[in-house]
Specification:
Layout lengths: L18 H12 L1 H15 L5 H23 L8 H9 L1 H38 L5 H17 L2 H29 L9 H4 L4 H10 L17 H31 L4 H7 L6 H10 L1 H35 L17 H20 L8 H30 L5 H24 L1 H5 L4 H4 L3 H20 L1 H12 L17
Helix pairs in contact: 1-7, 1-10, 1-13, 2-9, 2-10, 2-11, 3-9, 3-10, 3-15, 3-16, 4-5, 4-15, 5-6, 5-13, 5-14, 5-15, 5-19, 6-13, 6-14, 7-10, 7-13, 9-16, 12-13, 13-14, 15-16, 19-20
Length: 492
């Protein structure tokens, strides 16, 4: 693999995004409407029922604690490698290789699965609304190509498109919440101890955590942000807070509309058809707004596809820039877009989804569990590695700010550790399938761990310039590198 040169053809476009732009990119990946229809309905049914409101707020609190340390690290590190770069800076290059492999697998798998999800629901909704039968792969492929074209046009264009989608999704959910508030009221019973800790709290916390996936991408866009040392931390706090509030309010409205004591059973009864929120939408908003919500579900899925396409490309770009992956992945267009990485992700996603389509498999029972289920697990593990790296980095420096660099991120790390344990213990539930090949997928993380740790000494001895670049790449845009005079031990 050739190490890329550091010319203008491998530089992302700076100063493209402010706080709103980064927040739009992140919240679009979270896809609030999709999360409410798919994830929250599932969590109510299989988790702690109406107590899910508490679970969502608890996850938000854990992530905000993590974000305290994340914000401090973001002020020292401006790099498109996201959490992979955090791990290199915190625990060294071997750990960074592991994180890079996990991130690359996770986000690319996620995009391939999103082609299946987007195509499947688009074909179902189009058939329901206009009576035209679409092949799920054709629908997904068209939307995947459209997301590529938008991403190729520039990160600022993606942010604007995603901003519009996000506003429409949020307004729809708020209209539902207000309608429930006016017609039924929001029950405070959801905050009683019996409700909050009833049912399976662990499953509720796990599924609630999956509804926040995407918030971690704020650092991926740091090189393309204006004043990244301030933009990234502010965008992270804003994104986590908004995600938590939107999800908590929506769940509160859902369980209040269904009845606090009956919500779990109602959700279970609607689990097979997956239309819990659509039924409530029709009851509280009418048939016209139900149609609007169905159309916006397609918009929501497309927005998430576009957001994760951008994220996956930036991990490919970052590993190509340091020479771990082929250097061609670091090539950018004149507008600073990592075009080769975008094309690579596009081709990978279409080939994988196309393979399942050629075999005639149902995407929801085959493609989605494999790709999105495993992708979700990868991102959760990546968040944990980043949290651990943040704590190690600041303790090694003996940073005196105990709350912001140790206590808060340490508590966040423990919370993320619990999420990962829950995810591994309940992976068939997370993936939506109990098939043997699905249950074996987490072993790919072990391969990434072993591969990264074994590849590091090979790089150090046979390609020392690439091994060195793993760390020096972090400093090319580092606003406040730590001088050697501070006595910080060199990271291996």
């Amino acid at each position: 693999m050739a190490t890329p040169t550091s010319g203008s053809t491998s530089r992302l476009a700076p100063d493209q995004l402010g706080v709103p732009g980064v927040v739009f990119l992140v919240l679009a990946a979270v896809a609030p409407l999709t999360g409410a229809i798919v994830v929250m309905a599932l969590a109510i049914a299989l988790g702690n029922g109406s107590g899910l409101v508490f679970a969502v707020l608890a996850v938000a609190a854990i992530l905000l604690l993590f974000a305290v340390g994340y914000a401090q690290m973001s002020r020292e590190l401006v790099n498109a490698g996201g959490f992979y770069a955090f791990v290199v800076k915190g625990i060294g290059r071997p750990g960074g290789l592991v994180a890079g492999f996990i991130a690359t697998m996770g986000y690319n798998f996620f995009v391939a699965g999103a082609v299946g999800t987007t195509g499947f629901f688009t074909s179902i909704i189009v058939a329901d609304l206009v009576g035209v039968e679409l092949n799920w792969f054709l629908a997904g492929a068209v939307l995947m190509v459209l997301s590529f074209l938008l991403a190729r046009g520039g990160i600022d264009i993606s942010a604007k498109v995603l901003g519009v989608a996000l506003v429409l999704e949020t307004l729809t959910l708020l209209a539902f919440c207000v309608s429930v508030l006016v017609q039924t009221g929001l029950s405070v019973e959801v905050f009683t101890v019996d409700v909050m800790f009833g049912g399976s709290v662990g499953v509720a916390l796990l599924l609630a955590a999956t509804a926040f996936l995407g918030f971690e991408a704020t650092s991926l866009f740091s090189e393309e942000s204006r004043d990244p040392e301030r933009t990234v931390p502010r965008a992270t706090y804003t994104a986590i807070t908004l995600i938590g509030l939107i999800h908590a309010l929506t769940v509160w409205a859902i369980v209040s509309a269904a009845g606090v004591s009956d919500a779990q059973q109602v959700a279970l009864d609607r689990l097979e058809t997956g239309d819990l929120l659509f039924v409530l939408f029709e009851e509280y908003l009418g048939s016209t707004l139900l149609v609007v919500a169905q159309v916006l579900l397609i918009v929501s899925l497309f927005a998430a596809l576009l957001a994760f396409h951008n994220m996956a490309a930036r991990y490919l770009y970052s590993l190509g820039r340091v020479g771990i992956l082929p250097g061609g992945l670091a090539r950018t267009r004149t507008n600073g877009v990592p075009q080769t990485a975008l094309v690579t992700n596009l081709v990978f996603a279409l080939l994988v989804a196309g393979f399942f389509a050629v075999l005639g498999l149902d995407p929801i029972t085959s493609l989605v569990p494999v790709m999105i289920g495993f992708g979700t697990l990868c991102v959760l593990v990546l968040q944990l590695l980043a949290a651990f790296s943040i704590v190690v980095h600041f303790r090694r420096r003996r940073d005196p700010r105990w709350w912001t660099t140790f206590v808060a991120p340490g508590l966040g790390m423990l919370g993320l550790l619990a999420m990962c344990v829950l995810a591994l213990g309940n992976f068939p539930l997370l993936a939506g399938s109990d098939a043997l090949y699905v249950r074996l997928l987490p072993w790919l993380l072990v391969l990434a761990l072993v591969g990264g740790l074994l590849y590091a000494p090979v790089l150090r001895s046979r390609r020392p310039e690439v091994y060195q670049l793993l760390e020096t790449d972090l400093e090319r845009l580092d606003p406040s590198p730590v001088p050697p005079a501070e006595g910080v031990a060199a990271r291996e």
